[in-house]
Request: fold
Amino acid sequence: MKTILITGGTGFLGSNLAKRLIKDGNRVICVDNNYTGRMENVEEIKESPQFSFIYHDVCAPLKVAEKVDQIYNMACPASPPAYQGKHSIETTKTCVMGAINMLELAKEHNATILQCSTSEIYGEPLVHPQVESYRGNVNPIGIRSCYDEGKRCAESLFFDYHRHEGVNIKVIRIFNTYGPNMDPKDGRVISNFICQALLGKDITIYGDGSQTRSFCYVDDLIEAMVRMMNSDKEFTGPVNLGNPGEFTMKELADLVVKKIQSTSKIVFKELPSDDPTQRRPDISLAKKMLNWQPQIDLDAGLEKTIVYFKGQLNIQ
Ligand code: UDP
Reply:
């Protein structure tokens, strides 16, 4: 049994990870300020003696009395509507100060720390599919830069703490992921399309719908995260984690409408600025080093996700 701290532990990914780690017999300390995290995501595990919750903003240093073995640093709003606009400065602070504070905690506890970085660090990619050696094409002053540059700076901090302070680090770059525990009001494409289709509302495609994304079902991603955390000490990453199946947003909208047999009509809205045109992970490194590849395709993953959102929206 290990003691594992998760920042962002009540969020979509954090709560799925917490459940998995508890099932594996670990002790889990979940840290969150619930800005986008939700206590209902940890309802099932909240009473477990293996679980505890610390209400905390990672922008402030954190002291933990018991010895921590592993830290997953996941705290950060991750949906464009949540991280942009009036929350953009907090987003950069969460990425940068959160990384420093959690790296200091890892150093103090001699814990291994895993950083949840993102495909966003590639910006509007000029290399397709994206490989880890690609350095990206980020607009440093655009509306997404609070997140993109914040996450890039966090990667930089992780490698400097590794080089100069001897901290054991792991860096993963997460591509679009979906599944249970997403907030219906999150604003990301899969939650929007499914909820709109279930409620008979217009399906909102931004732009002409020709932009692409690659969607990974959450259970596949969590498996890869646990493998990465427990991989050889020398393997720091960064490593891409995602499902290489690539779809246009128009294809996604059509698939969701068909699966739900919805009467919703598709409407086209303005494309937000700096919205990447294409995105697909090259996962050769994850296959080789973690012996991992996704098992759940978009069709099967959407099936499970639709059941979850029906529950959230009280639809039979
Ligand atoms: N998108 C869309 N309709 C929506 C929400 C998002 O067409 O209701 C598009 C968005 O412009 C982007 C893609 O879907 O091109 C993925 O958006 P999301 O916010 O899920 O994640 P991103 O990959 O942009 O961080």
